[in-house]
């Protein structure tokens, strides 16, 4: 399934301003992550108070998962921001009778769907509160909401139109993939939630990866305590509307992912990151403002413990892998050794593609020729697996298409081994 182009439209200015340097989009993603933290603080403060807003934003800011998915350029990374805007705007429609906010909901939903298709789970969440809004309003308010909803729907279709046009051009490629996903249920989903055994693993993933800094404590007690604290928040908090919205936001995600038969990666949950930390902020704020000294002590202890855990296992302590610098150094060496002549290029790697290297070749206007466009007199091969590679006779397409060849020269750059091959007589 192919995502829409909105992510690339959003990142294009950053790439342009950085002079086509890949760091530009990465910086833009970091700024989006920072904006998500600020909006989490704003929403938490508006819904649950100053303490909850601070705690929610604080833990989102230091979360190892949030940091990891905010420091590089990848389509799912902005999903938390757009999901949060969806939730905040539908709350404005539902509780504050501001129907024009539904347009913001439609725009942010269209954006979220183009970041990751699991944001489809936002639709039942938003649809529920739209229906509650419509049901609770008088005739005049309903009319205003329906007009705004119609406008929002048209804008939604406009934003999604490139994806529709893509599908029309490519014989319904995405439509067929969606159809296969929902009809071939033996390997993808179980549409009977009562028979699913995946709900607990999803909750454990939320608990361990988002609250416990990706540390599996090998115990169900943290999960049981968390569920009890959620019930405490539902009972004790005065703004029950915002609490219900936050809990239902998470619950629909758990239900949706609970019927998914395959592994649930943490970035699948991006559209509930803000909700998870808003709930944590609410729970701790209720505790520290409670009359009981014991409850205050336990809440402060939880705050300190989670802060310690997230700080200790923060990716900020890790040394950078300098992947871009190493890639560019390898490209520069190949350009130099090619002696200004055309060359073919291939990559041997278990978990990477050659496009990052080709990006620099094209940006530096190197005379690199794709194998399908023509075979030159020299082939450069980069091996990312050290001495385990065998470039001669390798089945990788860009290497195999070159034909029989022999290694003439080798170089080493960090973990990369670079080979020059020339045709055998």
TrEMBL record:
Residues 5-162 form the Glycosyltransferase RgtA/B/C/D-like domain. One of its GO terms (biological process) is lipopolysaccharide biosynthetic process. Keywords: Cell membrane, Glycosyltransferase, Membrane, Transferase, Transmembrane, Transmembrane helix. InterPro entries: LipidA_mod_glycosyltrf_83, RgtA/B/C-like. It is a multi-pass membrane protein. PANTHER family: MANNOSYLTRANSFERASE YKCB-RELATED, MEMBRANE PROTEIN. This is Glycosyltransferase RgtA/B/C/D-like domain-containing protein.
């Amino acid at each position: 399934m192919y995502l829409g182009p909105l992510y690339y439209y959003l990142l294009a200015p950053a790439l342009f301003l950085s002079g086509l340097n890949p760091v530009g989009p990465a910086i833009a993603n970091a700024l989006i992550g920072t904006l998500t933290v600020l909006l989490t603080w704003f929403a938490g403060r508006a819904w649950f108070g100053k303490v909850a807003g601070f705690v929610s934003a604080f833990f989102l800011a230091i979360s190892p998962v949030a940091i990891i998915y905010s420091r590089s350029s990848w389509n799912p990374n902005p999903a938390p921001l757009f999901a949060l805007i969806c939730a905040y705007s539908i709350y404005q429609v539902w509780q504050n009778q501001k129907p024009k906010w539904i347009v913001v909901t439609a725009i942010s939903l269209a954006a979220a769907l183009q970041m990751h298709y699991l944001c489809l789970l936002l639709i039942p969440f938003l649809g529920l509160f739209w229906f509650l809004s419509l049901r609770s309003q008088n005739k005049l308010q309903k009319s205003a909401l329906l007009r705004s909803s119609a406008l929002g729907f048209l804008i939604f279709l406009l934003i999604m139109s490139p994806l529709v046009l893509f599908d029309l051009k490519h014989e319904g490629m995405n439509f067929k993939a969606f159809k296969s996903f929902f009809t071939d249920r033996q390997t993808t989903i179980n549409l009977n939630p009562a028979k699913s055994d995946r709900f607990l693993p999803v909750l454990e993933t939320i608990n361990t990866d988002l609250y416990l800094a990706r540390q599996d404590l090998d115990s169900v007690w943290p999960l049981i305590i968390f569920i009890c604290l959620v019930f405490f928040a539902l009972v004790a908090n005065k703004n029950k509307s915002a609490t219900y919205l936050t809990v239902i936001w998470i619950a629909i995600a758990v239900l949706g992912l609970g019927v998914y038969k395959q592994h649930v990666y943490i970035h699948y949950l991006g559209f509930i990151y803000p909700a998870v930390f808003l709930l944590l902020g609410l729970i701790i704020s209720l505790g520290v403002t409670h009359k009981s000294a014991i409850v205050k002590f336990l809440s402060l202890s939880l705050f300190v413990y989670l802060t310690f855990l997230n700080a200790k296992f923060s990716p900020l302590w890790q040394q950078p892998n300098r992947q871009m610098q190493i890639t560019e150094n390898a490209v520069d060496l190949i350009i130099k050794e090619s002696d200004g002549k055309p060359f073919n290029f291939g990559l041997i790697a278990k978990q990477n593609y050659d496009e990052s290297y080709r990006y620099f070749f094209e940006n530096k206007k190197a005379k690199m020729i794709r194998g399908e466009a023509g075979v030159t007199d020299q082939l450069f091969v980069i091996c990312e697996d050290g001495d385990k590679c065998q470039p001669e006779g390798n089945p990788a397409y860009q290497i195999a298409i070159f034909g029989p060849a022999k290694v003439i020269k080798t170089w080493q750059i960090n973990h990369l081994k670079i080979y020059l091959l020339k045709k055998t007589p």
